[in-house]
Specification:
Layout: H1 4-14, H2 18-21, H3 33-43, H4 51-72, E1 89-94, E2 102-106, E3 111-114, E4 122-123, E5 133-138, E6 146-150, E7 165-168, E8 176-179, E9 186-191, E10 199-203, E11 215-219
Antiparallel strand pairs: 1-2, 2-3, 3-4, 5-6, 6-7, 7-8, 9-10, 10-11
Helix pairs in contact: 1-3
């Protein structure tokens, strides 16, 4: 990583576009200028990445990918464990009262579940356009109910954003989106163990630009 910023600075100096430079907001300081310039080139002329446009494009690409896979697939295939899922395991959750029921959330590979203590695994979130999972929270009193926050809180070279909070009441067989789409990355979900309709969600916001959507959110009606 220490070699990347000087290289980026060199690229900026040699490939400088004065017309774009004049339009870069003056709030960028010298320390982050090369990185800011890189992001501005990809968000010009608005200096912000449209989440709606990004989500629409991801959903379109997902649909096209599904069509291609349907055409190319031959024979019968099955998932052989979460070891072949994309990227890092961000979150592990064990269902209260059922130690054999385990959920894994990946930074780029969706959600996997096991009902036999980890002997076998099943992907349960692959139909959704955003597969980055920041946190999983099983309900303390309702078997089969689990909340999933999308987005990767461990920001590396390429940030993986999400599109809000999801809930399943059937062990992940189906999911309902509960909102918070604009928060970018959900890093923590806590369900009140006493008043279990009260939920707290910590969000990081969108890593590409500053906005007012990051922070702590609270629901008193189970996320509705």
């Amino acid at each position: 990583m220490r070699y990347w910023l000087p290289l980026l600075t060199l690229m900026y100096v040699s490939c400088k576009d004065t017309s774009i430079e004049e339009k870069i907001p003056q709030t960028y300081d010298g320390k982050t200028y090369p990185s800011a310039h890189l992001y501005f080139q990809r968000t010009y002329p608005d200096d912000q990445l449209s989440l709606q446009a990004l989500q629409a494009e991801v959903e379109t690409l997902k649909a096209e990918e599904k069509k291609l896979l349907t055409k190319r697939q031959t024979g019968n295939w099955q998932t052989e464990g979460p070891g072949n899922a994309g990227a890092r395991i961000n979150t592990i959750a064990v269902a209260p009262g059922d130690p054999d029921r385990i959920y894994l959330g990946y930074s780029g590979g969706g959600i996997y579940t096991s009902g036999d203590g980890g002997i076998s695994w099943q992907a349960i979130f692959d139909d959704h356009p955003f597969l980055s999972i920041g946190h999983l929270a099983p309900h303390p009193h309702h078997p089969g109910e689990i909340y999933a926050g999308t987005g990767d809180p461990n920001i590396s070279g390429t940030p993986f954003t999400g599109n809000g909070l999801y809930r399943s009441v059937d062990y992940g067989a189906s999911w309902e989106q509960l909102g918070l789409e604009e928060t970018g990355i959900i890093s923590r979900i806590i369900i009140d163990p006493v008043e279990d309709s009260k939920i707290y969600v910590a969000t990081m916001g969108h890593p590409y630009f500053r906005d007012q959507h990051r922070g702590l959110y609270k629901s008193t009606d189970s996320g509705n």
